[in-house]
Amino acid sequence: MNHDLHHTFVLALYPTSRGYAYALFEGPQSPYDWGVKDIRKKHKNDWTLSSIQVLIERYRPDYLVIEDYTEKGSRRSSRIRKLYRMLTHLAETEHIEVFRSSRSATRACFEPLGARTKYEIAQVIARQLPAFAHRLPRLRKIWMSEDPRQSLFDAVALVAVFYGAHPRGH
Amino acid sequence: MAAGTIIMSLRVQSYLRTERRKWALTQKELTFLLGRKSPTHTSRLEQGKRIPSADALLACEILFGIHPRILFPKLYADVEEQVLARASTLYEQLEQEGSLPAQRKKEFLSAALKRAITRLNQPEEL
Q: Global pTM?
């Protein structure tokens, strides 16, 4: 594909144990739609996939951005790894280019801004994109489970890596 | 724009949902601000399933500070296409006429067509 990235839709997905977060961008500074979907049903992957399929049909994105689960040190569960494989297959059938962003690429992207942890990255995103500022979760204490809103910032971080990595997303 | 750049894209029906969510507004709150009763109305506007009324268009511009051409790009493009088709039909009808009013009308129509061509050649970014 040879698209001008300012006129393409980039959909980033970040599955979690409780559903998934998505962020759809039209340009590096132009979020179009975003959200966190809660999926608490049996056969979670099937429900997640059909929910994502609805998103894809609605927006027809040009690029799908997901975490590179094949990277050494990736700590995603086997269910989510399977979901990523299903998503890749879905993208292929829908002729959507897939961009995989590794955790190390995300760290490298945000380290110059002084953000190392997921929460610090979320803070940087909230500062740079005020549309997300009101969704910033509270700082997580060691005994707390992760706030579902954090996954939204993880999805946006994937988009940031996509736009930073390569103008054409390869 | 407070939160970055909006680029007109004809794949997009409306930026109303994006703008509403940027400002943490619920559909219910926007419905209230637009002076309507049912959030379904706002939902349909956001999805492009309903054409906004003139007062809704103006209310959106007042609230978000964005021109309706940018907030509802698809609607604007559709209306523009129809109006320009009618303008060129009228221009063709006037072409044989040499009277002063006809010349004035042709000036008006060609100015409108020129403006549209300029807009098409320069994608809008705010």
A: 0.84
| Rounded Cα distance, A89 and A87, in Å | 5
Q: How many CB pairs under 8 A join A and B?
A: 40
| Rama region for A63: left / alpha / beta (φ>0; ψ in -120 to 50; rest) | beta
pLDDT tens-digit readout, A59-95: 999 999 999 988 877 788 999 999 999 999 999 999 9
User: pLDDT by residue (tens digit) across B81-91?
Assistant: 999 999 999 99
Please enumerate in sequence order all residues whose Cβ is within 8 A of that of B12, keeping only pairs 6 or more positions apart, or say none.
A26, A32, B73, B74
* Bridge partners, A65 (sequence order): A12, A99
Alpha-helical segments (H) within A60-100: 78-93
CB neighbour burial string for A27-36, b if at least 16 within 10 angstroms, e if fewer: bbbbbbbbeb
In this complex, which of B2, B6, B17 lies closest to A33 when CB atoms are compared? B17
Does the interface predicted TM-score (ipTM) exceed 0.85? no
According to DSSP H, which parts of chain B are helical? 16-22, 27-33, 39-47, 54-64, 68-71, 73-94, 100-121
Residue B39, min C-alpha distance to chain A (Å): 19
